[in-house]
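User: Hi! Is it possible to get a structure for several chains at once, not just one? Here's what I have:
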Amino acid sequence: MKLPSLNVQILLGAAFGILVGLFFQNTGTESGLASGTLYTAGLIGTLFIDLLKMILIPLVFASIVVGIANLRQHSQMHKVWVTTLIFFTVTMGIAMVIGMAASLYFKPGTGLEASMFDGAMQDFQAKQMPLPEFFAHFLHNLFVNPFKALAESKVLSVVIFALFMGIALVMGGDRYKNILVLFQEVLEITMRIVNWIMILAPYGVAALLIKLVATQDVAMLGTLAHFVAVVAGTLLFHGIVVLPVILFFFTGKSPFWFWGGARQALITAFATSSSSATLPITMRCATKHLNVKPEIGGFVIPLGATLNMDGTALYEAAAALFIANLVGVELSIVQQMIVFFTAMLASVGAPGIPSAGMVTMVLVLQSVGLPAEAIAILLPVDRMLDTLRTTVNVEGDLTASLVVQKIVK
Ligand code: ASP
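Assistant: Yes, the chains can be modeled jointly so their relative placement is included. Here is the combined structure:
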């Protein structure tokens, strides 16, 4: 018997995971069957993420070095750099404008009493994150001993060191051609291993979704339904309308073609809530299904996975306005602009791991004097919203790689 294609298997895995998760959500998670299933799902899900993380660092390193070296001419490299950073900034800006506009219009949080959440807020110790310190920390993390960065999976630091290596290889020309060949082969080997890991993807996705859905706090989702609807609606709008329109405008590619090629990465992002863990699959989709040249994809996508977070930026901006409504603070235009800029910084600084956006949001709240403890209110719905915002983050990276490729050409 012939198995359905991997695409279909992953889709079936996701549907199965959600259905089983809903079943246990209804029947409760105390029974022997439920705890056994959740334990097994936890094991399989973690194994899948571990495998992706295992290959992540060698893949990122090799792909950036090779990507940069392939761009060769300095002028071309310069153009890719600049276009990529402009694209990241503009799309994150658009996402935040949408999130903030919707929050100002629908005013989630106005009907709720902040005192309802007093207990949660008292139990929660927010980590202080003054802006200058956050910025210094971010800068300090760019340049790290490469062995330490590789060993500790610091993706951004690895990206930066790989950029230096790639540039040095280009400048050295023929002198270092053996090293270049070595990295090209390492890249091929890592992609081969990614192909193997993909065989597990349908099971990994199913397991992660069973666990996530079964253990959701549904009552809290109900209380915060208005906020959840505004964030989910605007994230969907950005992912289904804005990014595809941008893609079509620059490349003439249809959204269906794009989603078809990006599907495996998008579903994995949804299930893992981690752009970094999804990165190997994102790279594979870009080069294998969306015809992104490795030298562009190998540069734009790893960089995007750590810096370009449309979904996170939208969420942080919208959540700050929600909390302002909840505690009854009217933000002035200037304060809204501060929210805009700090939310952008906070999302750039957020690593691509689950709930990272939630942690860096403290920065946004503090910047306009809102209580940092208020993020305790968002904790119960954060994991659920993280699925969507991570999907949008990854979609943004794939869109960026296609648009940059077109512009640079
Ligand atoms: N989970 C997100 C990501 O990996 C970051 C966030 O928490 O918003 O892209």
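The pocket of aspartic acid is lined by residues 273-275, 309, 312, 350, 352-358, 386, 389-390, 393 (CB under 6 Å). The radius of gyration is 21 Å.

User: Great, thank you!
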